Amino acid sequence: MKPLSGIRIADFTVHNAGPFCTNLLSQLGAEVMKIESAMRPDAFRKPHPVYGRMGPATFDQVSSTKLSVRVNLKKPEGIALAKRIVGISDVAAESFRPGVIGRLGLGYEALRAVKADIIMLSVSSCGQEGPDSHFAGYAPLFGAWGGLSDLTGYPDGPPVEMRHVMDHTVGMNAAVAVMAALMQRCATGKGAHVDVAAREVASSLAGEALLLAAAGGVPRRMGNAQEGRVPHGVYPAAGEDRWIAIAARSDAERATLARVIGGELSDAAIADWTRTRDANAAAAALQAAGIAAHASWTTPEIAADPHLRERHAIVIVQEPDGKAREAVGVPMRLSKGPEIGIHCGTPKLGEHEDYIYGELLGMNAAERRALEEAEVIY
Amino acid sequence: MQPMSETILPLNGLKIVAHVSGVGAAYAARMLSTLGASCILLEGPEGSPLRGEPPFLPGGKISALFAYLAAGMRSQIIDLSDNDGRAALGALLSTSDIFIDDTPVVDRAALGLDDAAIAARHPALVHVSVLPFGAVGPKADWKAEDIQVQHASGEGYLLPNGLSVEMFPDRPPVKIHGHFGAMQGGIAAALGALSALWARPECGGQYVDISCQDAMLSVGAFAIQRLGDGSVEHRVERSFRYGGVIPCADGYVELLTLEQRQWDGLVKLLGEPDWAVDPALADALERSRRGPMINQHIRAWAAIRKVEDIVREGQKLSVPLAKYYTPTEVVNDPHEKVRGLFQAVAVDGAGVFNVLVSPFHFDDSPLHLRAGPPALGEMSRAEEVA
Q1: A175 to each of A87, A194, B60, B102, B385, how far by Cα in Å?
Q2: Inter-chain residue contact A200 with B188, CB threshold 8 Å
Q3: Strands A8-11 vs A31-36: parallel, antiparallel or unpaired
Q4: Is the pTM above the cut of 0.95?
Q5: CA distances from B258 to A52, B31, B264, B370 (A)
Q6: pLDDT of A253-268, one tens digit each?
Q7: Could you tell me if the ipTM is greater than 0.85?
Q8: Residues on chain B touching A168 (C-beta within 8 angstroms)
Q9: Is the Cα torsion angle A43, A49, A52, A58 positive or negative in sign?
Q10: Is A305 helix (H, G, I), strand (E, B) or coil?
Q11: Where are the domains of chain B?
């Protein structure tokens, strides 16, 4: 069984972090109703020039396995309609800048008035309260504020900006928090307002360095080095821009590695050994000897990997025109939930209104038509 | 801001047993513990290997990594190599909700830790396995440090980008700090554990198999998405067309304008110079095409200005700008002080320090740590005294 079947989520989230949270929950069985409108369509329905994407995406990972319903939140009737959707939901998720959802009339207290035990998730850059809570931000800014980016990079170079992995780890963290709130509701009958601050997620992923700093230490970026691991690095392999990551953590492993490469154990000697070898073959040989090693994989290598496919970490999905493509599954295997994962691609705008407005809310055709004419369902 | 009452946390009442030696599994236990579950860390007589993992707090003996990961847990010594130890584990699991384990698959049966044996003895238990490549699949027995997890899941190949790859185009890719990949496994494990618990009333306990590689790939999903669009990402081409890491007179800021109003705010921040008010740049697609020229101007402007001034004035105009904080600046950040991100706890043998609690608030309150990291076997000794 899908473990979260029966949970229903009103999804007001935008951009990546919040939508990834609700996407994970949808892959685990929650019924996620993505609320958007033609006036403010999802970012993936539009070009994204800063990233160099000059048109809409044909497949949107974070919208997959969700239902789509149009609600125009610019109109009071749209707010009333959104409340009806929340009224049949367990969770309402949003990721606007703090204060926006409240000004729309959909803040936590307003939603509690509609559904007393609602769990509201708010994902934002800096949290709902605090002197910086009004700051706008995206993934690279979360990493910058949180200290994680300052710790990442070459020792003699600048900090390195975090990319989508930062957004998405915020989303996965938020999914944990939502599940904790659901467990709490199960035990107490009470809902909750869950506030997830993305910059704090970035900090939490460098908690040991922050503790060291709190104790008077000065952690710095170290490139590919890792304290306690020698050697530990990324070495050139045969072919253009091919690399292999190798690490040893004990004298026994170092002795083994020295034996395999047939010489002294220095970064230069390891590179001399790796640069004439295929990265995947060298990694397999080192693993067979008990050494942690892996090729630096390109995306096509990942998409084709039998291990990831067997685990359903890489799955095949079909676009509306029947074209097959790879996507990323939910990162777990459940002994009693083999059916978890992506079950449909990006929904069309408003694709599931017959179900949501018709079946769940019991709205008749005339009522829906009137709301469409008034550009409330828009 | 006051932390949540010590008696009320979302997962109060849940019992976790953690038999962990790696960061991923330990982080799962830490997350669930901080959310309110009681967590017993099982350690062999010699202590968890994590106690010997760098970085070390000043003084050189106490692991900051262990202190962070184990804060709030209890410690019980159990030697699973003998029958008494395995019986003690069985007794613990019989009263627990979640068991988190990262023993290599090949070693599990001898220790009584294989999933079939545990399911047979403890049918209501949620058994969570966390390994670098998972417990199933051709690479289940492969070893990995975090650098392998990051490179096996794609993000390793794709970093750095922006300014760093501009400066050092011929260097090897660089990893994200610390244990980012393993921690993604830990977060996925916490999510899997709670999802399985949610379903337990209907289907009983179950086995949750987490791979840090899968989890790291999951958070890097857009590379696979772009592959399906016909685009193979590379760290050079993946750089933002403009913005990104901007060197200033006294540090770095991050700048990213995705929306038109944010670009308009940036033009105002820059003082509306002639190049920026060029009507052609009103079009987002044209800005993308002229990205290098735009960045050249932004960098020249920022190079003679201070970080704090740029961020303060930029955020007033709703331009997404952030200072690159050092760890010390994060720990002392007024925003985080107000939000209660850190809590002073005792770290035996080192002192009392601020430890990061959690990025979650519930009902306007931060969570709290029950305590610092446990002394080895403190729970066993407490029971002996009792």
Answers
A1: 21, 10, 37, 22, 41
A2: no
A3: parallel
A4: yes
A5: 11, 33, 11, 41
A6: 999 999 999 988 999 9
A7: yes
A8: 218-221
A9: positive
A10: coil
A11: 15-220+343-385, 244-329
Residue B135 sits at φ, ψ, to 5 deg, of -95, -10
- β partners of residue A35: A69
- Rounded distance between C-alpha atoms, residue A313 and residue A306, angstroms: 10
Q: How far is residue B287 CA from its own chain's centroid?
A: 34
Domain B15-220+343-385 has CATH 3.40.50.10540: yes
pLDDT, tens only, B153-183:
999 999 998 999 999 999 999 999 999 999 9
> Which one of B254, B261, B294 makes the best mutation probe of the A interface by having the most chain A beta carbons within 10 Å?
B254
- Residue B146 has which token pair? 């975090």
Domains and CATH numbers, chain A: 8-205+317-373 (3.40.50.10540), 232-301 (no CATH)
Interface test with B, best of A46, A54, A210 (most B CBs within 10 A): A210
Q: What is the CATH number of domain B244-329?
A: 3.30.1540.10
DSSP string, A362-375: ---HHHHHHHHHTT
Residues 202-231 (A) with a CB less than 8 A from some CB of B: 203-219, 221-224, 226-229
Cis peptide before A231 (omega within 30 of 0): yes
For B19, residues 6+ apart whose C-beta sits below 8 A from its C-beta are B42, B80, B89, B99, B100, B101, B102, B103, B113
Q: Annotate B220-234 with b (16+ C-beta within 10 A) or e (fewer).
A: bbbbbbbbbeeeebb
Q: Where do we find the tokens 């994590």?
A: B50
